[in-house]
Amino acid sequence: MYSSLQKSLRAASKHLQLLQNVKSHVPKAYNSHVAAVNLLDHCLELHYNGTSMHLNYVWLRDHCRSESSFNAKTNQRELDSASIDLDIRPVSTKVEDGRLLLKWPDDHVTSYDLNWLSENSYEGNRKSTVQPRVLWDSDTYNKANVPPAKWDKIMNCDSELKRFLQNYLLFGVAFVQDVPATVEATEEVTQRVSLIRETTYGRMWCFTSDFSRGDSAYSQLALDRHTDTSYFHEPCGIQVFHCLKHEGTGGRTLLVDGFNAAEKLRENSPDNFKLLTQIPIKHDYVENTGNHKNHMRGIGPLLEVYPWNKELYMIRYNNYDRSVINTIPHNVIQSWYIAHRELTTELRRPQNELWIKLNPGTVVFIDNWRVMHGRESFTGLRQLCGCYLTRDDVLSTARGLGLQA
Fold first, then answer.
1. Do residues 365 and 161 make contact, with C-beta atoms less than 8 angstroms apart?
2. Is the pLDDT of residue 11 over 60?
3. What is the pLDDT of residue 331?
4. How do residues 310-335 score in pLDDT, each as one tens digit?
5. Helix or strand or coil: residue 255?
């Protein structure tokens, strides 16, 4: 029995020794509070905060935040990137007090906060989301019970504007209520959010079903879900609608979260999703009515993703304005139609349709790069006003209020 006990103790001792050996060989990189640096031939390898980063030496010199390299007041680079030796390497490196210190051949010292490197490295950026979103179908959106902004508050209170923009960023659509039913008041509330983008339709537009322009929007016909200005190289970022008057029936507005449908496509048919991100398609707007003569053309894929993290950021979907398809080789076009059909099927599922009735006093802001709009046919006089807003300035306003955009 004693001999058996000794054997068990020896086995346990060997097992413990093996565990200690394994533990001693675990690199410090796996301790999120410890940084490990390794100089490779063409880059610096940094293990920190659970991430293994590979930082190019020219990149490290180019992004130096020292006073002589970067103007902190204007947030602009002072260093001439073209002056950096493309074969540059640091002569020494050190991690100290949460910072990476690099000394260069000319004795210049660069100091980086480790968290800044973690956030701004390719590896860190690849795992991050540019803009958080809530994907929705009609049930999801209705259950979210997103509160509309109020005219008097949003015009005078930055916290109300911030809440409005947060909802807009998350859902791709947001409402302002109690707006006076005039073009002037509509213009005021839109300018509170962003700059108005003037187009061939003018700055602020007000229209009825009089066919005054060569577009089906100027009719009483039903319109299927679509994004606007797909015939611009950069489609307008935000679509604004305000129904000033409707003396008749029908005319409900349709909203569909295009990103929700596209992500379903990515999940179910990743190859079809990928194809729609790769094939450029032409969209045309040809108008020759009265004093309006226009021929606009935009070219781009139906779906656009950021190349580093594959996050979807734009959908161009307009069956009315899609032009002749002559950008696809004959051996690919059938696959494109199959992918397009699958996306269309998802977009047209009834559960993805949010139907709302726009009444005087309610202004809707629609992310034209994400949420599609349409309408049912109507009778009687229906007068709408609205405009397009610049996307860059909406996002700038949001960032200025501390939102991720």
1. no
2. no
3. 94
4. 999 999 999 999 999 999 999 999 99
5. strand
What's the one-letter identity of residue 375?
R
Rounded Cα–Cα distance for residues 380 and 339 (Å): 39
Torsion of CA 361, 382, 357, 174, to 10 degrees: -50
Kindly tell me if the per-residue pLDDT of 219 is higher than 80: no
For the ranges 271-275, 312-316, 323-327, 349-353, which has the lowest average pLDDT? 323-327
The helix-helix angle for 258-268 and 330-347 (nearest 10°) equals: 120
Which is nearest to 180 in space by CA: 155, 160, 145? 155
Q: 84 near 61, Cβ under 8 Å?
A: yes
Instruction: Give the mean model confidence (pLDDT) for residues 20-47.
Output: 66
Whole-angstrom Cα distance, residue 281 to residue 324?
9
What are the contacts of 322-327 at 24+ separation with CB within 8 A?
322/230, 322/281, 322/282, 322/283, 323/281, 323/282, 323/283, 323/284, 323/297, 324/282, 325/281, 325/282, 326/282, 327/279, 327/280, 327/281, 327/282, 327/299
**Dist. CA 234–CA 321, nearest whole Å:** 15
DSSP string, 59-96: HHHHT--STTTEETTTTEE-S-GGGS-TT---SEEEEE
301-307-309 Cα angle (round to 5) = 125
Given a cut of 80, whether residue 23 has pLDDT beyond it is no
Rounded CA gap, 127 and 309, in Å? 7
